[in-house]
Amino acid sequence: MDAVVEVHGLTKRYVSGPVVGPIDFEVWPGQVLAVAGSNGAGKSTTLRMLLGLASPSQGRALVMGRPYRQLEHPGLQVGVFLGGRLGDESMTSREYLTFMAGMQGLHNVRRRVRRVLRACSLDHWPKVRIRGYSTGMRQRLGVACAMLSDAPILVLDEPFNGLDIEGRLWLHDSLKQWAESGRTVILAAHEIEELQRIATHVLIVMHGRQMGCGPIEQVINDNSDGAGIIFRFANGVDVSRKAAALNDLMGMGADLRALKNDLYLARRTDEDTVFATAARCEAPLVQLNRAEPTLREVMTSIINRSSVKSHTS
Ligand SMILES: Nc1ncnc2c1ncn2[C@@H]1O[C@H](COP(=O)(O)OP(=O)(O)OP(=O)(O)O)[C@@H](O)[C@H]1O
Question: From CA 245, how far away is CA 161, in angstroms rounded?
Answer without folding.
Answer: 40
